[in-house]
Amino acid sequence: MPSLRAGLLIYSPLFLTDHRFQKKRTTKTPMTTPTASDSLLVGRLQEATDQFVLEFTASVNFDRRMYSQDIRGSVAHARMLAAIGVLTRDEAARIVAGLETIHKEIDSGAFEWKVALEDVHMNIESRLTDLIGDTGKKLHTGRSRNDQVATDIRLYLRDSIDRIDALMSPLLDALLAKAAEHADTIMPGFTHLQPAQPVTFGHHLLAWFEMLLRDRERLRDCRRRVNRLPLGSAALAGSTFPLKREQVAEELGFDTLCENSLDAVSDRDFAIEFAAVASLAMVHFSRWCEEMIIWASQQFQFVSLPDRFCTGSSIMPQKKNPDVPELIRGKTGRVTGHLMSLLTLMKGQPLAYNKDNQEDKEPLFDSIDTLSNCLTALNGLIPNLEANRENMAAAAINGYTTATDLADYLVKRGMPFRDAHHVVGRVVARAVKERRQLHEFSLPELQAEGGGANAVSADVFDVLQPIGSANARSHTGGTAPAAVRSAIERAKQRLQI
Ligand code: ARG
Q1: Which residues are within 8 A (CB) of 394 and not within 5 positions of it... i.e. 6 or more apart?
Q2: Which residue out of 192, 314, 442, 475 is catalytically annotated?
Q3: Where are the domains of the chain?
Q4: How far is the C-alpha of 42 from the C-alpha of 89, rounded, in Å?
Q5: Is the CB of residue 152 less than 8 Å from the CB of residue 73?
Q6: How much distance in Å is there from the Cα of 415 to the middle of ligand 1?
Q7: What DSSP string runs through 267-316?
Q8: Closest CA to 440 of 461, 425, 420
């Protein structure tokens, strides 16, 4: 039996053993002297878990990052067990002290993680019994790993959401500061990546701000559904002990309890929701990054990125590559992929807990890490984004971007919009042919094209310039410098909420 690794049994704790799987032991057992803990399982266990299966089913290599949450959950559970008389005060105190020691061991790197103990929960519980003896074995009373892991993930995700939220705040502030700096900076606005109408750079930055503010709203909304306590659901049906779930919820800072034990141990919709929130944020970032990459190109030269956020080429000495925005754009794929993984993982699972759910962690953790790193990168990029005002302004007039303004002008002088659209289309066609800008036409030429002296007067030249075009859009949500300034003031108020 080559797969029999008796050595593993030595540190297999009781709760690792699946007593249902038995085979007559046919070979001499090369077991060392049973220890206090494994002597109890020797009688039943006839075959050790296959080494490959042990490694295949283990999650400790990735779920150990939840150790702090696992310990917090166990401390709260132990205190509650003491409150209902299942543990004595002294037992609970020893458990809590042991868990604190373990926390320090893990923090310092002294803790020995064992794959044979499968996951973070059993590694910690086993060590607790090593440290404090039999009292450690009482911790798992009224609890299952099913409600334990669901609690740990929710705590971990809640902590991560709070860190991500804290990374979003300076970025929102930086966008507002940049927008204020560039409230008057004129640039071309695009549709289909073709010059469309002049806008202010400040207005463009406020568009990014709106995206990010919605991302933060979604994050905070998601947190409300994450922050519910599953513990007390035990394996699936609840517990025979009179658990005080409210006490645990309060100690751990949960807003409320998960109401149904079957649902609490099995659903991971809160993780899926977070992955959706993260995906949308990343999709937004990928759009900003794409714009920064285009703007930083030699063809545009609208912005320059800080050198320390760019890299050179190993062969082309002149290169300054926008690697950081490119990577953010690229990393978006991982996060949207994780959303698909999690959705597919959940699909078709019968109630209640299934081992499938162990697969929730890697996509979730990587979504958290990727989003956090991209936010850190953007916090470095955005405040240091240098705009080239001259190039932006020069580009703002190219492509007849004030043609709509001329049409609006004619409408205000009494021409139906469709006719005005037609007239301006003709003027633009002529301008293209004669290689001229609209403001380079003389007043008589415009009058001749545009329905006579009554329809066009000298003030037409105001709207043919990009700044006039932008200034005219001064309503709420418009691109005028004045509108941008008042939008920034409102945005500051909205950030207070
Ligand atoms: N490591 C497991 C997970 O992540 C813990 C729960 C295991 N429960 C069980 N009954 N096998 O889901």
Answers
A1: none
A2: 192
A3: 31-35+50-141, 146-168+201-241+248-386, 395-495
A4: 33
A5: yes
A6: 72
A7: --HHHHHHHHHHHHHHHHHHHHHHHHHHHHSTTT--EE--GGG-B--SS-
A8: 461
What three-state secondary structure class fits 387?
strand
d(CA 334, CA 337): 5
For the residues of 426-493, what is the DSSP string, one character each? HHHHHHHHHT--GGGS-HHHHHHHTT-TTT--TTHHHHHSHHHHHHT--STT--SHHHHHHHHHHHHH
The CATH class for the domain spanning 31-35+50-141 reads mainly alpha
CA of 99 to the centre of ligand 1 (A): 20
Structure tokens at 479: 């691109």
What does the block give as tokens for 127?
């060590």
Q: Answer for the pair 14, 41: CB distance below 8 angstroms, yes or no.
A: yes
What's the burial of 189, exposed, middle or buried (CB within 10 Å: 0-12/13-18/19+)?
Answer: buried
Same fold flag, 31-35+50-141 and 146-168+201-241+248-386: no
Q: Which CATH architecture has domain 395-495?
A: Orthogonal Bundle (1.10)
Taking the CA of residue 360 as reference, the ligand 1 atom at the shortest distance is 4
352-382 tens-digit pLDDT: 999 999 999 999 999 999 999 999 999 999 9
Fold annotation for 146-168+201-241+248-386:
Fumarase C; Chain A, domain 2 (1.20.200)
Amino acid letter for position 198: P
Catalytic residue among 39, 169, 313, 457: 313
Q: Which atom of ligand 1 is nearest to the CA of 119?
A: 1
pTM of the model: 0.90
For ligand 1, mutation pick of 355, 360, 364 (most atoms within 8 Å of CB): 355
Residue 261 bears catalytic tag: no
The reply to whether 192 belongs to the active site is yes
Task: Give the CA-trace dihedral at 79, 84, 89, 94, to 10 degrees.
Answer: -40
What is the mean pLDDT for each group of 10 consecutive residues in the chain (497 residues)? 41 48 44 35 63 95 98 98 98 98 98 97 98 98 98 98 98 98 97 96 98 98 98 98 98 98 98 98 98 96 91 79 96 98 98 97 98 98 96 94 94 93 94 94 90 84 93 95 98 92
